Automatic annotation (TrEMBL):
Protein name: Periplasmic solute binding protein
One Gene Ontology molecular-function label: metal ion binding
Pfam family for this entry, one: ZnuA
Keyword Transport: yes
InterPro entries, per database record: AdhesinB, Bact_metal-bind_prot9, Lipoprotein_PsaA-like, ZnuA-like
Keyword Transport: yes
Protein family (similarity comment): Belongs to the bacterial solute-binding protein 9 family.
Assigned keywords, A-Z: Coiled coil, Signal, Transport
GO biological process, one term: cell adhesion
Organism domain of life: Bacteria
């Protein structure tokens, strides 16, 4: 199986639940997205964003920038505004962790001036794709440059027998979910774009400054709200929130390796024990995920299952980051009460 359910990668391991999620996600969410990423998978997209997503070549000598997946696209688009063409390689609705590059991706990189990635080992498909593109003039921006990755900061509870490990050799990559680290990513993208296209320096600086200001006020809002519920512990099925948890004094317990078909009594007991041990207050799935195993586990654990967004998929307007993060804040506030 090449495509896994969006986001339900448990960070370190692929859990058995993925194949089930895959079926659900493919039928419910991605639908026909594999053949046509511009229809049905990108709701409420602005005409401008739509144009840039599908622009095959640079227009009128504009710098052509390709980005890997949604959050990096959002940050790059925010900085580039209209002075560069920004494209995305992994269409929203397609899982990034196990992404397989397409011939179109190779073409996009072959004709690009700049490539922006999240880094920290997230984009496993990229190295070979870049090699195949043979673009000697390509400038690469690592948005996580200078960010110290975290390893294993969340307790990981395994609910089934351990499978092959696939460790994050370069640490947990989900840095974009911490608004403060997102600021660092935007700054790296700004500096990389200025280096590649100095003629538009003033625009890149102004756009980045405006977006960073919004990130700062988002950070303030998170701080103000979550300081009322210190050490709130939550369970996720995707090890995506350790940076956010660390920033705001929350605690993520990542539960991984839920079996495919059903939970054994031991699985349930392990999860129940984890809830007691860590005094867990909340259980998070992801938006658009409707899974019977998770809802039945939530009943067993007597915890409400709510969606927390990893932003690995969603709308392509740069403002979507704030919309989704504010929704996350509301969910956290409600759950941690
Ligand atoms: Zn992830």
């Amino acid at each position: 199986m090449t495509i896994n359910g969006k986001g339900l990668i448990a960070g370190r391991q692929r859990s058995g639940i993925l194949s089930m999620m895959t079926l659900l996600m493919l039928s419910m969410i991605t639908g026909c997205s594999q053949s046509n990423p511009n229809q049905g998978t990108i709701p409420e997209q602005s005409p401008q964003a739509q144009a840039t997503v599908s622009t095959p070549v640079a227009q009128l000598g504009k710098t052509k920038v390709v980005t890997t997946f949604l959050p990096i696209y959002l940050f790059t688009k925010a900085v580039a505004g209209n002075v560069a063409d920004v494209e995305i390689l992994v269409p929203p609705g397609t899982e990034v962790h196990e992404y397989q590059a397409t011939p179109e991706n190779v073409k996009a990189i072959a004709t690009a001036n700049v490539l922006v990635k999240n880094g920290l080992g997230l984009e496993g498909f990229l190295e070979n794709t870049v090699k195949n593109a043979q673009n000697t003039k390509l400038a690469e921006i690592d948005a996580s440059k200078g960010i110290k990755p975290l390893n294993e900061i969340s307790p990981v509870v395994k609910t089934a027998k351990e499978e092959e490990d696939h460790e994050h050799a370069q640490g947990n990559p989900h840095v974009w979910l911490d608004p403060v680290l997102a600021k660092q990513q935007v700054t790296n993208i700004r500096d990389g774009l200025i280096a590649a296209d100095p003629a538009n320096k003033v625009t890149y600086e102004a756009n980045a400054a405006a977006y960073i200001k919004e990130l700062e006020s988002l950070n303030n809002e998170f701080q103000r709200t979550l300081q009322k519920t210190p050490s709130c512990t939550f369970i996720t099925f995707h090890d995506a929130f350790p940076y956010l948890a660390k920033r705001y004094n929350l605690k993520q317990v990542a539960v991984v390796q839920i079996p495919e078909d059903q939970l054994s009594p031991t699985d349930v007991q392990n999860a129940v024990n984890a809830v007691k041990k860590y005094k867990v207050k909340a259980l998070f799935s992801e938006p658009g995920v409707d899974n019977k195993l998770l809802s039945s586990l939530s009943k067993d654990l007597k915890l409400t299952l709510r969606p927390l967004d990893s932003l690995e998929t969603g709308e392509t307007d740069p403002q979507h980051y704030f919309k989704a993060m504010k929704a996350n804040l509301q969910i956290l506030e409600t759950s941690c009460k």
